[in-house]
């Protein structure tokens, strides 16, 4: 009888812990192992800098096709994705193989740069309201020189597509609807939010 009780306890514990770790909102397109690795790096960076937002972080998985959700808003307290949207990559990141991307930190490359960014202050530009991005890694250190910002564009759809979406000039470019959601999070944050673009 005691053995059965122990087995039952272990089974219940397993399912409860699994449910607490991730919920059903995790998209099928995400490779969990890769995401967990990126999440761990962001959490480690947060430990070293108290000036960053420790509750919310943004993740962009560039291995996911541009027509599918690959920009994720992550709740660091509840350990779950709370929103997701489409995001364009730079035209300079295209290769001869569609969906197989390359990346660059060079000025005028029009490529997406991988790495961690801080989301800075907003301003009014050619695409309306946008947020300045500062690169924290060697792979995106020229973000400010390249005028890489988080902005919206009317040509980016709000829903997933079966085809690739339009490209940017290197900026993470999202739909107007998704931008409105992100805008509320950024504007109400008392500290800078980390954006992690990985491949």
TrEMBL record:
<dbReference type="Pfam" id="PF13645">
    <property type="entry name" value="YkuD_2"/>
</dbReference>
<dbReference type="InterPro" id="IPR032676">
    <property type="entry name" value="YkuD_2"/>
</dbReference>
<feature type="signal peptide">
    <location>
        <begin position="1"/>
        <end position="18"/>
    </location>
</feature>
<keyword id="KW-0732">Signal</keyword>
<protein>
    <recommendedName>
        <fullName>YkuD domain-containing protein</fullName>
    </recommendedName>
</protein>
């Amino acid at each position: 009888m005691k053995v059965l009780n122990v087995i039952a306890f272990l089974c219940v514990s397993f399912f409860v812990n699994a449910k607490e770790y991730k919920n059903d909102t995790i998209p099928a397109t995400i490779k969990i192992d890769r995401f967990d690795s990126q999440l761990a790096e962001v959490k480690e960076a947060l430990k070293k800098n108290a000036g960053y937002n420790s509750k919310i972080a943004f993740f962009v998985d560039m291995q996911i096709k541009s027509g599918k959700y690959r920009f994720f808003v992550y709740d660091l307290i509840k350990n779950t994705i709370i929103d997701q949207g489409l995001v364009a990559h730079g035209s300079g990141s295209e290769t001869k193989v569609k969906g197989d991307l390359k990346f660059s930190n060079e000025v005028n490359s029009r490529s997406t740069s991988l790495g961690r960014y801080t989301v800075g202050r907003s301003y009014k530009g050619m695409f309306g309201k946008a947020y300045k991005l500062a690169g924290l890694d060697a792979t995106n250190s020229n973000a400010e020189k390249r005028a890489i910002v988080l902005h919206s564009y009317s040509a980016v759809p709000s829903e997933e597509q079966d085809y690739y979406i339009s490209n940017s000039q290197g900026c993470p470019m999202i739909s107007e609807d998704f931008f409105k959601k992100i805008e509320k999070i950024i504007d109400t944050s008392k500290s800078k939010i980390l954006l992690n673009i990985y491949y």
